From TrEMBL:
SMART domains in alphabetical order: AAA (SM00382)
Lineage: Bacteria, Bacillati, Actinomycetota, Actinomycetes, Bifidobacteriales
Organism for this UniProt entry: Bifidobacterium apri
Membrane keyword on record: no
InterPro entries: AAA+_ATPase (IPR003593), ABC_transporter-like_ATP-bd (IPR003439), ABC_transporter-like_CS (IPR017871), P-loop_NTPase (IPR027417)
Listed name of the protein: ABC-type quaternary amine transporter
EC number annotated for this UniProt entry: 7.6.2.9
Length: 292
């Protein structure tokens, strides 16, 4: 069955069962999932004042999936991400983590259970690299020795030098700051990691390095990742599935191969086309440089 159809059906079944049961195992008539999706949104809407920004979003993200949210500026990507960790409240509809409605969960507890990486790393400027990485563990009262060991492990994992442990964020390059942000997100071993344009402020080479790194980490640890970007090439490189947003609705949710080969609308075709044009232009420009 077509993945997009399957998701639509699943989302529909979530909608049908959510109010009554609060449990998300139904897959429609007579079919039962053995596990709920790691993340499910059922008819979620969100407005700022009278401006509707997300309009009846149905979305399921499976455990261990890498889903990229992509769309033009203002299409609602960041808003959607911030609904997932309750930085913003939904106006209507439901969000479920592992089958459990997040409106029953404490926002702080929920956020501590998820990794969150934003542009620039979102590091605390007055804390050292080591403390930035270990802060969530510190807040959860983990023993100092365990935190120290984990910090070293995370620093090695993101291929930073341990000599930077006592440095402060303003003493690091943009790429190093972003690596610290990624290390912090993984430190508490969360099931879910949310990433909001984490690499978009970086130069192309550093950006490529970090994309490679996150793909590698995803393969190794199979975290469920929801990643926001404007960049189709980044989406194709990293995603198991790409969710294309336009004016607060999902216009396609499918594998990179299918989004590229079968764009669901003229809008998606144009979006993919622009990315390909850019890639060709960049490729040509880089090719010229190499020849010089
Ligand atoms: N706090 C806010 N108050 C009012 N309007 C907001 C607020 N935050 C976002 N918006 C508006 O909601 C819409 C969606 O914003 P959002 O940041 O989710 O889009 P986005 O797709 O992430 O955009 P970008 O790619 O530029 O970051 C935009 O029109 C934005 O101006």
């Amino acid at each position: 069955m077509d993945a997009t159809y399957d998701d639509a059906e699943r989302a529909q079944s979530l909608r049908d069962t959510s109010q009554e049961t609060g449990d998300h195992r139904s897959l429609g008539e007579g079919r039962v999932r053995s596990t709920p999706p790691m993340i499910a949104l059922s008819h979620v809407s969100k407005s700022y004042g009278d401006k509707l920004v997300l309009d009846g979003i149905d979305l399921a993200v499976e455990q261990g999936e890498f889903v990229v949210l992509i769309g033009p500026s203002g299409s609602g990507k960041t808003t959607l991400l911030q609904l997932l960790n309750k930085l913003l409240p939904v106006d209507s509809g439901g969000i479920y983590i592992n089958g459990k409605a997040i409106n029953t969960m404490d926002g702080t507890v929920l956020r501590r259970s998820m990794g969150y990486v934003i542009q620039g790393g979102g590091l605390f400027p007055h804390m050292s690299v080591a403390r930035n990485i270990g802060i969530m563990m510190e807040l959860s009262g983990r023993p100092r020795k365990e935190i120290e060991e984990r910090v070293d492990q995370m620093i090695d994992m993101v291929e930073l030098s341990r000599s930077l442990k006592d440095s402060y964020p303003n003493q690091l390059s943009g790429g190093q700051q972003q690596r610290v942000g990624v290390a912090r997100a993984f430190a508490c071993d969360p099931d879910i990691i949310l990433m909001d344009e984490p690499f978009s402020a970086l130069d192309p080479i550093t950006r490529t390095d970090l994309q490679d790194q996150i793909v590698k980490l995803h393969r190794a640890y199979r975290k469920t990742i929801v990643f926001v970007t404007h960049d189709m090439a980044e989406a194709v490189k990293c995603a198991d599935r790409i969710c294309v947003l336009q004016h607060g609705t999902i216009v396609q949710y499918d594998t990179p191969a299918r989004v590229l080969a079968h764009p669901a609308s003229d809008f998606v075709r144009e979006f993919v086309g622009r990315a390909r044009d850019l890639e060709r232009t960049l490729g040509a420009a880089l090719g010229c440089k190499e020849e010089q």
